[in-house]
Amino acid sequence: MGPVDLYGVNGAVLESIGHFATTDIGLETYQALSALERAGVHVAVTLVVAMVALGLLQNFGPQTVTKCRRSPVISICIGAPSLLVIGAVVSTGYLIIGTSLGTFFGIVLVAVGLTIIPVLTIAGFVAIGQSIASRFGRHQLWIGVVVASLLSGLVGLSVLATVVAVLFAGSLGTGSAIRVMRGAGGSTHPSERTVPPANKI
After folding, report:
1. Which terms are listed as keywords in the entry (predicted)?
2. Domain coordinates of the chain in residue numbers?
3. CB under 8 Å to 118, separation ≥6 — which residues?
4. Which of 38, 94, 122, 153 is 20 to 30 A off residue 48, Cα-Cα?
5. CB-side exposure of 87: number of CA atoms within 13 Å?
6. Ramachandran region of residue 192, left (φ > 0), alpha (ψ -120 to 50) or beta?
7. CA–CA separation, 167 vs 87, rounded Å?
8. Residues 97 and 15 sit within 8 Å (Cβ to Cβ)
9. Bigger pLDDT: 109 or 73?
10. pLDDT in tens, 28-42
11. Separation of alpha carbons 176 and 75, rounded Å
């Protein structure tokens, strides 16, 4: 007896729901939009998700954005393979949706992956937007969110530009988030470092 049988749900029903949720209302709907409609969707989604994510993750979110700006090359080097791994996990979950075991676990993997990837990608966009805004002397985080939304809408006019921008921002945000999580247990500021007893004043 598989996990689906334990809940008394027909596997074919969950399979159809999984394919519909990940394909029919996703890629096909996006491709049917015009360039201006895609740009509008990009602006709205980036603005809403950035405000919600940065509002809920009040420490982690701004730290990720700051880490993106301070060392983007390192973040991309770490984030690119990490994003590839996350994408592979999501793809695996999508492919096993049609099986008796994957009907349950596959939807969970896809749902978690499609929640993490957009948030980290938009964090990368916000970092890029804040870097652009800082060129004009505006360093506020909310200015970066607005610029990031406009930038996301601009790249939304072209599907190719969207793919390139999403991969770049996704790698940047993923790498920075990993670095923030790895450094969460240590000191992040020189004044927080432990001073040896012999060197204390």
Report:
1. Membrane, Transmembrane, Transmembrane helix
2. 8-183
3. 45, 49
4. 94
5. 14
6. alpha
7. 11
8. yes
9. 73
10. 777 777 888 888 889
11. 5
